[in-house]
Amino acid sequence: MRFNALTWGTRIGKIAIWSAPWPLLLLVSITAAPGADNGKADFRPRPINEYAHRQASEGVTIAAQVYETDEETREAFGKVNPYRYGALPVFIVIQNSGKDAIRLDKMTFTYVLPDRTRVESTPAQDLKYLHGAKRPGTVPGPVIPGISRIPKNPLAEWEIEGRAFAARMLPPGQTASGFVYFQVPQTSAAASVYIAGLTNAVTGNELYYFEIPMSGK
Fold it and tell me: What pLDDT is recorded for position 2?
């Protein structure tokens, strides 16, 4: 039987991809994170204009939402609240309303505390090696976890890495989303999420940075 690429289809997670130009093929990396859903409850972003904390620039809108309490994290992570184990999840939604694709492969995330202390995000794949983190509020000073291989670490659950932000390219008219994680001792309404490194894929120009206040002000 002759193979015809125009009639070929594949399924990733719950998304079926049939023959399409390259922008739609890139959608695979945007909507289906590694191990997406894995038979678990579905978790999807809301429309970006429903998020209180967002910023728009150069045709791109980014929203950020902290997931801190057990009630907030249950839908995305089930019984595991990552913040109880030293990793604050922040859900990021990026919408490209411009005419050019946006490269996201060099994007960086930083959590900026009210005193301007900056905490870089921790790669999702490293979280399963964290140890020594205690429940927030049990120690007066900052949490300084180490990295080690510990079996049955709650942060080794598939949702931690499977729902992390993983998109590398964002075509025009599309939205990408996922979690980034910060090792911070406390959250604050006066904190902000600083995002840089987005690049116009056509011109090669880097977009202006985004700093999204968690207070929404």
Answer: 43
Q: Are 180 and 92 in contact (CB under 8 A)?
A: yes
Residues ≥6 apart with Cβ < 8 Å to 193: 53, 64, 90, 92, 109, 110, 111, 112, 210, 211, 212, 214
Q: How far apart are CA 114 and CA 87, in angstroms?
A: 19
Q: Is residue 51 part of a domain?
A: yes
Task: Indicate the number of domains in the chain.
Answer: 1
What's the predicted TM-score (pTM) here?
A: 0.74
* Amino acid residing at 91: F
Measured CA angle at 37 (ends 35, 40), to 5 deg: 130
* pLDDT tens string 80-136: 999 999 999 999 999 999 999 999 999 999 999 999 999 999 999 999 988 644 444
How much is the CA Rg of the chain, to the nearest whole Å? Answer: 18
Domain CATH code at residue 145: 2.60.40.1240
- Which amino acid, one-letter code, is at 194? Y
Domain that holds residue 54: 45-213
- 56, 80, 211, 217 from 208: Cα distances, Å: 10, 35, 10, 20
Q: Is 5 exposed, middle or buried (0-12, 13-18, 19+ CB in 10 A)?
A: exposed
**Sign of the alpha-carbon torsion through 182, 34, 40, 93:** positive
Expressed in angstroms, the distance from the first to the final Cα of the chain is: 61
Domain-located, residue 29: no
